[in-house]
Each structure stands twice: as structure tokens, then as C-alpha cells.
Amino acid sequence: MDSIRTEVLDFYTNLGTKVVDESHDQDTTDLHKCVAYIRDFAPNLDKSNLCILVAAALGGRFDHEAANINVLYRFSTTRIILLSDDCLIYLLPRTHRHEIHIQSSVEGPHCGLIPIGMASVGTTTTGLQWDLSKYIDLKLFW
């Protein structure tokens, strides 16, 4: 948060919030720095059940949204959920079997599966309007 306004920084500092200044690192995003800090500098944290919820992660500049999605991929062994007013995004590592239970009253009526980095092979879905049955080479599905 190298562009944080002084009054915002003072507000959180006065609440006792620990502030870590990583502004010297301009090679990674704020979210990347935050996730790395949580994973690497919290030795007593049980990382096997770690889930990081990132509020207001979407709905702004596209380059920031794409960078946040890249963080999901870079930290694919950590469950990270990007949340906005109208959607949530998380990575489904190909090394696992996944069950997604949509609560349409909370998450909305849409569920999109988008392969990132490579095609998805052997994808099967149930309960969607257009289910996939061992779909080979899923490139894009809305």
C-alpha cells in the first residue's frame, strides 16, 4: 500500500494495527506481499487450513484484477478467495477433486469455469445449466 494516504495510515496505526512497510519492493503487488507475509512470517499459523479472504479485490482497474488473479496462481497451494460486491473467485488446483456448492442467494446465479495457464482435461460437472461430462481440453466455459 505504497500509495496509502497519511490520514488512513494514521487511523489504522492508532487502532494498533501492525504496519509493515514493503514500499521498497516494486516488483510485486500489495496482495502478493500480503499473502507472502501471512504464509512466511506467521510461523505459528496452521497453514493446512489457511484460507485468505480478500475483500474488494475486484471491480476496479483491470490490470489490478488480473494481478490479483495471478496471485491465486502464484500461491496455488494456499486457498485464497477474491471477493467483490457481485462475485467471488478462487483457484481450483488440478491436483484435487473439487465440489462447488453455489448458494445463489449469496453468490448470484452464475458459475464460470475458466482454465488459467493451461487447458483443463477431463472436467465433469453436475448441477449446472450446461453440464460437462469428461470434457476434454476445456479452453473457456461461461
UniProtKB/TrEMBL annotation:
Instruction: Provide the Thiamin pyrophosphokinase catalytic domain boundaries.
Output: 1-80
The protein's UniProt keywords, in alphabetical order, are:
ATP-binding, Kinase, Nucleotide-binding, Transferase
| The protein's role, per its UniProt record | Catalyzes the phosphorylation of thiamine to thiamine pyrophosphate (TPP). TPP is an active cofactor for enzymes involved in glycolysis and energy production. Plant leaves require high levels of TPP for photosynthesis and carbohydrate metabolism.
EC category: transferase
Q: What is its main location?
A: cytoplasm
Organism, per UniProt?
A: Populus alba x Populus x berolinensis
Q: What is this protein called?
A: thiamine diphosphokinase
Q: Extract the InterPro entries matched here.
A: Thi_PPkinase, Thiamin_PyroPKinase_B1-bd, TPK_B1-bd_sf, TPK_catalytic, TPK_catalytic_sf
Entries under NCBIfam families matching the protein: thi_PPkinase
The record, for Gene3D superfamilies, names:
Thiamin pyrophosphokinase, catalytic domain (3.40.50.10240)
GO BP field: thiamine diphosphate biosynthetic process; thiamine metabolic process
State its Enzyme Commission number(s).
2.7.6.2
Give the record's GO CC terms. Answer: cytosol
